[in-house]
Amino acid sequence: MKLLIVDAGHCLSLALAREASRRADTELVIEQGTTITASRLEAIAPDAVIIPPLAHPLNMAPADVTAHADAVDTCLGACQSQDVALIWCVSDQLYEEGLEVPIDEHVVPAPRDDSLRRLVQTGDRIRAEFQRHLIVRLGPLFALEGSHAWLNDIIGDLVAGKAVRAAEDVIFCPTSADAVAMALIGMLQQQVSGANAWGLIILRAPNRSVLLPLPPWCAPNC
Questions:
Q1: Total domain count, the chain
Q2: What's the pLDDT score for residue 166?
Q3: Within a domain: residue 219?
Q4: Residue 106's domain spans which residues?
Q5: What is the pTM of this model?
Q6: Torsion sign, CA atoms 12, 60, 75, 90
Q7: CB 10 within 8 A of CB 148
Q8: In this protein, which residues make up the domain named RmlD-like substrate binding (predicted)?
Q9: DSSP 67-105
Q10: Three-class secondary structure assignment of 20-44
């Protein structure tokens, strides 16, 4: 299986590189930039393109969030033209904004911020226009190196003598970037083996901010 991930310096890109190097069944191509062209995809011929998440879109400049959405749109167009699966990882912050109650997993987020709404529109476009996609919801990524690494930012603030608040993991539960890398490769190995199961995936450490109703077949037995 050959995978391509954009944004080489992202902590998830580094974690995927570590995991792929330990496996004989996975080849990883890492792009420095945040987008990919159709001609580049045709030359590399990967089984899937992976887009790492913005770690804290609520705290980022709106222009940076919008630029990320534009980059995802560009990758979507390239993947559609070459029929290459698109894997877009998104932060749980997108689902938390504006909510004062636990998240209902069946509700599409409706943030108040214009740039965050732009991310939602991008997700809507992916679901409507391209069947071969996974939108992977993640909490903050727990890693020591790379951009968008939750722990790395905290250590940097401590070294700089800045105040650091206790992690509010009742709301945002950090997830190991290495664990996410292992899970992504495992899921995509199943896809290339014929699973053909696409859509939204929730992949993060346990937390208490989410309402997960039991399925009807399970409730009577639980």
A1: 1
A2: 64
A3: no
A4: 2-207
A5: 0.84
A6: positive
A7: yes
A8: 65-200
A9: HHHHHHHHHHHHHHHHT-EEEEEEETHHHHTT--SPEET
A10: HHCCCCCEEEECCCCCCCHHHHHHH
Indicate whether 85 belongs to any domain.
yes
Residues 117-135 have a mean pLDDT of: 93
Q: Which one-letter amino acid corresponds to residue 35?
A: T
Q: Give the count of alpha carbons within 13 A of 181, CB side only.
A: 25
| Rounded Cα gap, residues 173 and 198, in angstroms | 25
Identify which has the larger pLDDT, 116 or 11: 11
Tell me how many degrees the CA angle 106-107-111 measures, rounded to the nearest 5.
150
CATH of the domain at 108: 3.40.50.720
CA distance 69 to 88: 11
180 is a domain residue: yes
Structure confidence at residue 219 (pLDDT): 36
pLDDT tens string 153-165:
778 888 899 887 7
- Strand runs (DSSP E) across the chain, as ranges? 2-5, 27-30, 48-51, 85-91, 103-104, 133-138, 141-142, 175-176, 199-202, 210-211
Q: Do residues 142 and 151 make contact, with C-beta atoms less than 8 angstroms apart? A: yes
The pair of structure tokens assigned to 125 is: 């476009």
Q: Does residue 130 or residue 117 have the better pLDDT?
A: 130
221: in domain? no
Instruction: Please compute, for residue 72, the number of CA atoms within 13 A of its CA located in the half-sphere on the CB side.
Output: 30
